[in-house]
Each structure stands twice: as structure tokens, then as C-alpha cells.
Amino acid sequence: MKKLLLLAVLVLAFSTTAYSQDVKLDFRASGFIDIQTEWYRWNWTTNLAGRNFIIQAVDADNKPGGGAFNKSSAYMQSRMRLKFDAVMGKELSGTIFFEADSSYFGDYPGQTGLNAPARNSMGMWGGDNASLEIKNVYIDVAVPYIPVPTTVRLGLQPFGIRSNMFLYADGAGITAAAKFDPIQVTAYWAKLLEGKQANGDDSDMYALAITGKVDTFSLGAYGFYFNTRTYPLNATFTAPNIVAPYGSTANSVSSKMYWLGAYADGKLGPVNINFDFVYDNGWVKSSSPNLNPLADDKVKYTGWASRLKVDFPWEAFNFGVVGHYGSGADANRTDVNGMPGRAVANPASGAFSSKVGSYVVPIGSETGSFNDGEVLTASYVTDGFTGINYSGNGSFMTRGSAGGIWLAKLYAAYKLTPQYKITLQGLYYGDTTRHGDTFGNSRDSSGGLKNNSTIGYELSLINEWQVYRNLVFRFSGGVMWAGDALKFYNGVGNEKPDTPWAVFSRLVYSF
After folding, report:
1. Which of 88, 193, 262, 307 has its CA 20 to 30 A from that of 225?
2. Who contacts 3 (Cβ-Cβ below 8 Å, separation ≥6)?
């Protein structure tokens, strides 16, 4: 048996060599450098810890009495990405992808967390900062002697599908894609956490996706399973970079979650259509002996989100409409993180967290790129990392940008010249959380949370200028009139923030 296994390995090794022995190395480089400016009033995402919320998703600094409440902020930031591809024909390539960020011009080391003392600090005075990050390192290889064209990707790679709704995360794993014309089947495996090698505390992702084209439409469906034996993902660490010892009860919470989704992109007559639907189901369970005896040991998760975008291009114009709905939590059955044994968000309920009805996205998913507005949702101009609504990229499951809200959007774009385009858009944001609000925490006379329906109305303007072939400048501004679902309890009564607004710009050199 061992000889047969060795023979199979040698055949694969030599056959791959035979595929590429006469092919010269093609070494490619690509990337971008950007410069952003951000000026706004009341944007809670300045506190990274706030990204882990499912309900009442505003941190203390941006509520009444907090140091940032109703104050304006302004700063500059920058990002660099540099990608190298070593290509040996169609059969073999390797990719190394670097990234560096300045969270703010005038960065200081350690600002983004104890585990990363230099990360995102490229903008320090004096320079020479160790901010260079390894984003991806992977190999793509075509599998020889298989009648179905099949490629395999191995290493630290991007795992993403419908990233504005569901998942984008970089991680270590394997992707295999097989082409059965006219469809492609792709299988994924990723290791989220290894933990102690002899402990059953690791976390894995398994997934399958099917894509294809029918007439003018690209169609897709996917299923993802996350077996997270340590939850939240950092629970096994007792201190920065120290894994809990064998036998530790630190990871006494686990999670099993499923996501099923489908989408369609294409042209129907004169209009372009983008449609998404995704459903989640599963649980977070505690086996801790210290669990509150009055609480359930399991929180059940069931949620869904859907989005439809329709564009009607006409000469130099483009008219569009967007509708989105993401199910919300029940404040009588859910705490801010959806964990067992914790008191629910509604202080008058007296209950413990038992169910999350909000749509949620996987651990670490960077679903900030919702890009529908400029004030509440993530800005198209800033590439998705602003907005009151941004929630994701944490060690918990969160509602992402899609859960807990619904929206209706109308917009019109006009290309004044081949290099310059302007877009005007109006949005209504609604709240889908029950017995409370997704963002606000206003209370009634009995001390319980109010249930409000309107988050606000937004009007925004986006300008795009193609300065040179590889240089783009974008500039935007927006204002939002807050509704009752953005009221906050200040200890005496309920208070709305002053009118939120935002002004952004981004200069991008791509190469």
C-alpha cells in the first residue's frame, strides 16, 4: 500500500513537471496605492471592538455621554497592496500578496490591538514601521491526467463569495475547482483555528459552490458549514499569542453553523439585474459548568437576507433601484453578541439569550463593502470601511452589514464626459429588530426598550474623475436625517444624535 501511495505521488510530481518543462517563467507585479480623506459626524466604527455586535450596534463613545457623541472627526489614511504572480503557463502559478495600511496619518504603534503592535501603523512619524502584512501566499496548479479540467489552490488565500452579503476572509486552506461545461463546481476547506494539536479545539470551514451561465445570466449557489469548536475564535487564548493549556475550560463554548445561498447577475432586456438570497442556521453552545442555571446552554441561530439591484442604462445616464432586507434579532431573546448564559439586550425582559433571528455572517467576514450609501452603510468611495452600519471582521459571528436593516434606494448617474461621472442617490433605512432596535436603545416609561421602525433617510452625491488611465479620484458627501430607531437612552430620556453627515475622498493609483 505504501509503495502504491509513493508511486502515485511520483506520478503526480513528474507529470506536473512534464506539463511545464518547456514553459518560461512569466513574473508579474500588480497593485495599488491610495490616499483617503474622511470627515464625518457620528460614525461609530472608529471603535474596532464594536464590530462584534448583533444588536444595539453602537459603542459607548458614540452614545449620549460618550466622548465622540455628536462630534465631528477628520483624518487621512492610506493603503498599499502589492501582488506578485510567478506564472508557468496555464498549469502552474504562485502568488505572494502584500498589504500595508495607515489607519490614520500620524499613526502610533499598537493602536489596533495588543496582538499586532505595528499593524496598520504605516503612517507613523519617522516612518520605518514594520507594518507590511502578508495577505496571501498560495499555489495554483492544474491537476494532470483528469478528463475534467481541474485546478487546486493551496495556501493562505482569499475565501470569498458575494462578499457584500456573505463572506470575504483571507485564510489558510485548499480550494479545488472542476469545470463541467457549462458549470463549475468548487470545493473549499479552510482552517480557522488549530489551537492545541492534541485538543479538539480547532475550527474548520467546509463549502461547495456551483456556478454557471444561462443565456445572459451568471448563476450561482453555495453551501457553507463552519464547525467552530472554539467560540469566539480567540477564546482559547489566555493572553496575546498564548494558547490555553491542555485541559483548560477556556474554550467551553462551541458553534456549528450552516449558510445556504443563491445569486444571479445578468441582463434582462434593457436592464441589468443583481440578485442575492442567503439563509443561515445553527447554534452556539456552552458546556461550561458555571453556566447560569436559569439560562439555556444553547443559542439557536436562524436568519436570512436578500438583495435586488436593477440598473437601466440609457445613453450617458444610468438609473437604478436597490431593495434589501436582512432579518433582525429579538431583543427579548438575544444579547449583543448572541451568547448563551448572558442577559438579553432588553433590560426589562429578565431573560437570557436563547435565539438569534438576525441574519449573521461568518467569523472574520469583512462584509463592510455594502456600498449603498455614504453615511449609514459603507461608502463606495472609501472601498467599504466606513459607515455607521459596518459590522464584521471580528472573532464572533455578527450581523455584517446586511442583518437587522432593510433599505430602499433610488439613484441616477450621468457621465458628463468620458472621464467624469456624477451620481445622486436617496435612501430609506428601516429597522428589522423586534422588541428593540438594531442601533438605538431608547426606552419606554417601564424601562423596556422601544421598538422603532425608521433608522433614517439619506441623500448623497458621488463624483468620479478618471484623471489618467491608472489614476482615479472619487469624492462624495452625504447627510442622513435620523429616525426614532437611532434614539438612545441618556439616563433620563431618549435622545437622537445631531444630523449625521459624511464627506469622503479617495485617490487611487493602480498598476
Report:
1. 307
2. none
